[in-house]
Structures are given as structure tokens and as C-alpha cells.
Amino acid sequence: MNSLPDLSSLPDRLLALLGPDASHPLMFSSGLFWALFVAFLPVYAWLRNSGRIAAMKIFVSAFSLYFFFHNSGWLFLLLVFTAAIDWGVSHRIASASSVGARRAWLLFSLILSLGVLVAFKYTNFFIDNLRMLTGDAAFRPVSLTLPLGLSFYTFRTISYVVDVFRRRIDPAQSFLDYLFFLSFFPCLTAGPIVRADHFMPQLTADALRQPVDRARIYGGFFTVLMGVIKKAVIADYLAQYSNIAFGNPSGYSGVELLMGALGYGLQIYCDFSGYSDMAIGLGAILGFDLGINFDFPYRSRNVTEFWRRWHISLSLWLRDYLYIPLGGNRRGAVRQYVNLLVTMLLGGLWHGAAWTFIAWGAGHGVALCLHKRCKVWLDRLPDGGLVGFLSWALTFAWVIFLFIFFRADSFDTAREMIVGIATRFDPAYFPEFAKVRYVWTALFLSVFALHFVPTPFYDRLRDLFVRSPWIVKFVLFVAVVQLAISFASADVQPFIYTQF
């Protein structure tokens, strides 16, 4: 007689699964997240459709905080603390009778938010640099865990408080609404950096009583599937070779290193835009508009256009809350160039506590200054043909060149990559590379070519998916899952931007 399975340890295993576990993060590309989301969705739909708005907000906020808790443990309380302080500060700013008082409360909020960000993200960076400058071994790194999405929700709360100070928006009347906005799980990990003036109106009772139509739900589902393909199929597969090339640049030819750099450029685009697609798609399924975060950036013909297409929510944030307050282009050309350089240097430092990120930001700042300086002459050139191609090629080459610094773990690695490409480059290696890494090459060329397909084609494809029968949707879903399984490595690969 067969014995019954031992279920005595099931509660412990379930507790371990649902408890904090930074070694197995809860991400959009993990099976655990989708299992939880499938359980979450019908409860959410019932609460929203039945008009239980307050209960729905509590339920979503609790799920979002659990999402944070699973990845960062009790540090999720930091987000709750930040939300409570800035919600209270926003009301103080709105009710203050003098400009001085309003500025004092704003300064308090900025010091607190930026202080937490600097403490967790840059403490060891400063310690390492002090040790190198002084040679004193007493400066030792401290053990710190970077809270989930700290950089992203810090920027969201700063924009909220600043907008209240500028009287662009009124403070959120309900703390629950503000906590919902700040912790909303689709954009908690790595953006988009959705602003309160765009999101908060969607939390009004009237807005939430509007049914989520079929087109939005299935359109969101289609966007999620595209994000899964970008991340789990393309980015993770391309990463395998990029990691090899950047891991030992002295051991490869110039062609191999060039392909590693090009592959990383496509990898980070597919990884981050894939995450953004999943976040935006999940938001749409739940009935929320999170905007757009990428618009085919590798089509750009200059660096200014690139930053209008790449990580759009960050670009607009840097423009509105750093570049323009510094003076923008209102105080002469020299001041504009300084403002651009400062903005991009800080943008680079925001991405990571390392000099390589600062160099990446500086490179983009210099390119933006050069484009502004030469724009009068560039505008006289014909738009299209050879000039258009050369403009695109130069922009693309500079972006990929700078991504070497973004990916490299040190200046030595970046230097070895650049020197290797420049001194060991032989075009005769291309056929051999394509022969040995034919799957990688085919995937790279296909995805790169798809980047230049006109945007209306993708809009029509989404509309076809929305109108298709359920069996077609199911077959496509199964095909995407199978693709992800076929290309998957042993472990779920984290999104690149979750480390920022």
C-alpha cells in the first residue's frame, strides 16, 4: 500500500516561499510573480467592479508592499515612512502662509529623501574614494542592502512634493491614495517614473468606477507578452555572450569584443524596455495608464533625439526637476552647456555609484552640448539620404561606445574593451563569428532590423491581437511561454535596472 505524501512541512515551505528572499527576487519574469498575480487579479477585479474602492486600494497597496517585502525584507517600512512624511509635508506646504515656510518644508523633504538615497546607495562609494585618496585602510565598506526601487520611488516622491510647492497639483487628500501611488507594484522596481499629476487623477472615485474595457485589458496583455519576449528571450540570451566578452576582454579579438559591445547595447534596450512593457501592460490590465518609456531609441539621428526616446520618464524628470531649475537654456549658451553637463553627470551618478557611470553621463553631456552648439549648421543640411544615415550611424556609434563604460565594472575593463576593438579588429573574423554563434547573430540581426519597422505596424499588430478570438490569444501566450522556457538559463535573470 502506497503511503500518503508527508504534508507536515507544507506550512513552513509556504511561509518560506512567501517570506522575504533576496536570493530569489519576485520579478515580472519569475513564475512566482505570475502565480501570485493570477490569484491577485480576480480579487482586484471583484473589488473594483463592485464599487469597493477603498478596499481595492488597501488590497493593491498591501500586495505592492508584499512585493517590496519579498525582495527587501523589512526595508519595505522605509517606503511607508517616506510616504507618510512626504504626504504630511505636502499638506504643510499647501497650507503654509509664507513663501519662506513653504520653502523650508520643501527643503526638509528634499534633504530627507535625498539623504536616504545617498545613505543607502552612495555611502560605500564615498568610503572607497576616501580610502583611495588617503591610503587609510581604516575606511572600510559597510554592509548595506539597497532597498527595492529606491532610486525610482525617491524621484517620484520628489516630483510630487516639488509639484505641490509649485502649485501644479494639490496634495493628495488621502494617505492611502498617496501610498497607492508611491508603492504601485508595476512601476515599483524600475519605473516608469510616473508623476503624481498623471497618476493621481486615475485614483478618483469617478475614474475607478469606469469599467476597464476589453481593448485596454487585451492591449495590456499584448504589451506584457512583448515585454516577456524582449526580456526573457532576447535580453537574457544576448547577455550570455556580453558577459563573456566583458568578463575577459583581453582574451578575444576585436570583432568579438565589438559584437559584445553591440550585443550589450541591444541587451540593455530589450531588458529595460521589456521591463517597461511589462509594467505598462500590467498597469493597463488593471486599468491604469503609466505612459510610455521607450520609443525606438536606436532610430535616433542625434543624441538629443536619443534622450527623447530612451527612458523617457527619466529624461523628462531630469529636464523638469534639474535642468530647468538650474536655468535651462534661459541664461546664455555657456550656462546652458554647464547645465547640460551637470544634469547628465548627476544622471550618470543616479544610475550607479561608480566613476564609470559618471563617465557615461559625462559622455552624453558632452554630446548634447556639441549638438546644441552645432544645431544651427546641422539644420541647414538635407534631412535624409546619406546625411541622415551618417547622422544615425554617428549617434548609434557614440551611444554604443558609451555603453561600454556603462557595462564595464571598472575603467580598466572599459579600456581593454576599447583598445581591443581598436587594435585587434579584423573584418575577416565576422564570417567565423557568425558561423560559430549563428543563433546569437540571427537573433541580434533580426531584433535590430525590427527596431526600424514603422511604429504603425506594431499598433496594427496589437489591434489584431485585441480583436482575435480567445483561442488565438491562448496559442500565442503558450508560444511565448515556450520561447521563454527554451531560451531561459538555469536561474531567473534580474532586470538590469533593478540595481539602480
Automatic annotation (TrEMBL):
Gene Ontology CC terms: plasma membrane
Gene Ontology biological process terms in this record: alginic acid biosynthetic process
Segments traversing the membrane: 26-47, 59-85, 105-125, 137-155, 175-194, 337-358, 386-406, 438-458, 470-490
Locations listed in the record: Cell membrane
Keyword Membrane: yes
Superkingdom, taxonomy of origin: Bacteria
Molecular function in Gene Ontology: acyltransferase activity
Keyword Transcription attached: no
Membrane-protein topology: Multi-pass membrane protein
Keywords on record: Acyltransferase, Cell membrane, Membrane, Transferase, Transmembrane, Transmembrane helix
A Pfam family the protein falls into: MBOAT
Family per record: Belongs to the membrane-bound acyltransferase family.
Protein name stated in the entry: Alginate O-acetyltransferase
